Amino acid sequence: MPEGPEIRKAADAVEKALQHRQVLDISFAFEALQGYEDLLRNASVTRVDTKGKAMLTRFDNGYTIYSHNQLYGKWMIRNAYNYPKTNRQLRLAIHNEKKSALLYSASDIEVLRDEEVWDHPFIRKVGPDILSETVTEEMLIERFKSRQFSRRKWTSLLLDQSFVAGLGNYLRSEILFVSGIHPSLRPGETKARNIETAAVETIALMQQSYLHKGITLDLDIAERMKASGKKRNQYRHWVFRRASEPCHICHTKIEKTEAGNRRLYYCPTCQSL
Hints:
The chain is an alpha+beta fold. Helices cover 29% and strands 21% of the residues. The protein folds into two domains: 4-125, MutM-like, N-terminal (N-terminal domain of MutM-like DNA repair proteins, Alpha-Beta Barrel); 137-266, Helicase, Ruva Protein, domain 3. It contains nine helices and ten strands. Strand 2 (45-51) and strand 3 form a beta hairpin. The two termini are 30 Å apart.
């Protein structure tokens, strides 16, 4: 499943294609939404927001399209009415005079009035979005230490969308590594300096992944590895998908385990108890 940085990138592409241009045509695959086509036709997209892994396409007539890519959803931007050859099912198509924004394979799509957006079940429960909202280190430290979250294991907390929106599996492993936190711990069992580092790195890694196409490894190290001929999957992450490979810091072999039925990677030396 794409994580917050990938959804924000997709939102940027949709916004670039549609913003401030009149919608000439729009079509929904789901019959329950087709009554909104006339309502949204001739409106203009004002902006495209994200809330974690959900996207909010906002129109100037007071309506918003909520969409969640889930596991298989994918946006494609094409020249107007130029459809790609694909076996995916087209769920939503928005056309203007120059571009078409096409959403394939997603099944979670709704049309809401603007005032209804924040009462949507997913939006209501999801935490702050680092890439679309102002989120500070102090805010995250307070959340880590709060009664609601401090007793949760880090491995489940960093996947909980009510904690921070958009965090996912690769960011979980990467945040724990750069913060020096063993995956068996809870925030309430973690030293203050590691919690502070986790707050800093949660923001920094989310932003770096967004700006640098999913790379979470130190950018200087990544650049040197790239110059030496290494493939992208070798210089993308600190630990994620690097089982049995040497740690970039201490050269201990990276270990792979499972947490919450999802794979997790860590360095037993840099993240020792």
